[in-house]
Amino acid sequence: MGTKAVVSLTTGLEDPEKVTVAFLVAVGAAETGRETLMFLTKEAVRLAVQGTAVGVACDGCPALPDLLRRFEAAGGRYYVCPICFNAKHLDADALIGNAEIQGTIPMWKWIGDESATTFSY
């Protein structure tokens, strides 16, 4: 079994429950010792901009800022699709600390030759 996990997220705050589930899966992977990467595309690229991932999706759901903190503390990383990010005219200087503008080829290089567990939301 591979020790890496990739969570692909296309949804932003237009569906906060889906975002929460994706983060719960990513946090779970990272906190159990897997190298974990979230690949953010479409509206999800906005979540990598400081101050965007805020709020609570549902009664009993953890707050998004708490999930982001846990993900970073566990060593989780974000690759933010450059095409999606640039199409939205977002500011790369405003990215959160563990996020970088990287596309699919760097994602595949990060995975490397070992297998990776993947999830897509």
Report the CATH C-level class: Alpha Beta
Low-confidence stretches: none
Q: So, CATH architecture?
A: 3-Layer(aba) Sandwich
Secondary-structure-based class equals alpha/beta
Helical region count?
4
Gyration radius, to the nearest Å?
13 Å
Strand order of the largest sheet: 4-3-2-1-5
Q: At the fourth CATH level, what is the homologous superfamily? A: DsrEFH-like
User: What is the CATH third-level topology name?
Assistant: Hypothetical Protein Ychn, Chain: A
Structural domains: how many: 1
Mean pLDDT: 96
Distance between the termini: 22 Å
Helix content: 25-40%
**SS elements, strand count:** 5
Percent of residues in beta strands: 15-25%
**Shape designation:** globular
Helix and strand element order? EHEHEHEHE
Please describe what this structure looks like.
- Helices cover 33% and strands 20% of the residues.
- It is built from 4 helices and 5 strands; from the N terminus they run E-H-E-H-E-H-E-H-E.
- It has helices at 16-31, 64-73, 82-87, 104-111, and strands at 4-9, 35-40, 77-80, 99-101, 116-120.
- Strand 2 (35-40), helix 2 and strand 3 (77-80) form a beta-alpha-beta unit.
- It has one domain: Hypothetical Protein Ychn, Chain: A, CATH 3.40.1260.
- The two termini are 22 Å apart.
- It is globular, with a radius of gyration of 13 Å.
- By secondary structure, the chain is of the alpha/beta class.
